[in-house]
Amino acid sequence: MAEHLASIFGTEKDRVNCPFYFKIGACRHGDRCSRLHNRPTISPTLLLSNMYQRPDMITPGVDAQGQPIDPHKIQEHFEDFYEDIFEELSKFGEIESLNICDNLADHMIGNVYVQFKEEDQAAAALQALQGRFYSGRPIIADFSPVTDFREATCRQYEENSCNRGGYCNFMHVKVIGRELRRKLFGRHRRYRASRSRSRSASPRHRRERDYRSRSHDRDRDDYRDRNGRKPERHDRDGGSRRKHGSSKRSRSPPPAREGSEERRARIEQWNREREEKA
């Protein structure tokens, strides 16, 4: 029974725990939900609810006065907010990911999810954000159960094929430009896919790894020292070998095995020598 409950925890088959709160850290029913919202007491991820106020909040693409807004202006406004939040939150530790929802439903609009590398960094940020305001509005921050954003994001939205629009129940993560991402996260940023599960290397990755290994050997062959000579390559046992014009190392032949009669004679000789010394 326990194994069955564990296998369906956080899924649609779970009639006790809310699957949407488990996956995206928010539920459209809120406190009126018939299922439990298991709020974590510690997590590397913080949820800043309804924090981002998009300029076309009332009607997409139109400002409060009913005038159309240039999409480039909307993106510029978003990236300014993203950079501002990133720089402020990075004071508390290394940020693994910062995701901002582009959804329109009340329980998800403007939600900001920041995932730190360590849980204590998230705890320090949460404590510092208590009682603070941003753009005249109080910051509502809580620990979030979301640690794997692959399960929380809408795949159809990433493929521009979501027919639910901004009222989808999964995250429509707003994307920043490449230059800003490189500036904030670094050129050689290595994402851990939100604590992604470890997987064995696929055949394609194994082939690439073997190719890189062979390429490294070729690069080592092409390397020359300052005098133009190729360095000696060393075997694992510490011996050196040259690529051309070197004689093979001679191996001494293994000693011949003694027969049983020879071993008995040798043992008798050892016993006689021991008795004479005694």
UniProtKB/TrEMBL annotation:
Record-linked SMART domains: RRM_1 (SM00361), ZnF_C3H1 (SM00356)
Pfam families to which the protein is assigned, alphabetical: RRM_1, zf-CCCH
Location of this chain's protein in the cell: Nucleus speckle
Residue span, C3H1-type domain: 12-40, 148-175
Start-end of Basic residues biased regions: 188-207, 241-251
Zinc finger C3H1-type: from-to: 12-40, 148-175
Any one Gene Ontology BP term: photoperiodism, flowering
Listed CDD domains: RRM_U2AF35B
Keyword tags: DNA-binding, Metal-binding, mRNA processing, mRNA splicing, Nucleus, Repeat, RNA-binding, Zinc, Zinc-finger
GO molecular function: DNA binding; RNA binding; zinc ion binding
Disordered: annotated segments: 188-278
Domain RRM span(s) in chain numbering: 44-146
SUPFAM superfamilies: RNA-binding domain, RBD
Listed InterPro entries: Nucleotide-bd_a/b_plait_sf (IPR012677), RBD_domain_sf (IPR035979), RRM_dom (IPR000504), RRM_euk-type (IPR003954), U2AF_small (IPR009145), Znf_CCCH (IPR000571)
Domain of life where this protein originates: Eukaryota
Record-level GO cellular component terms: nuclear speck; U2AF complex
Listed Basic and acidic residues bias regions: 208-240, 258-278
Family under the similarity heading: Belongs to the splicing factor SR family.
UniProt function note: Necessary for the splicing of pre-mRNA. Probably active at the 3' splice sites.
Protein name as catalogued: Splicing factor U2af small subunit A
Organism whose genome encodes this protein: Hibiscus syriacus (Rose of Sharon)
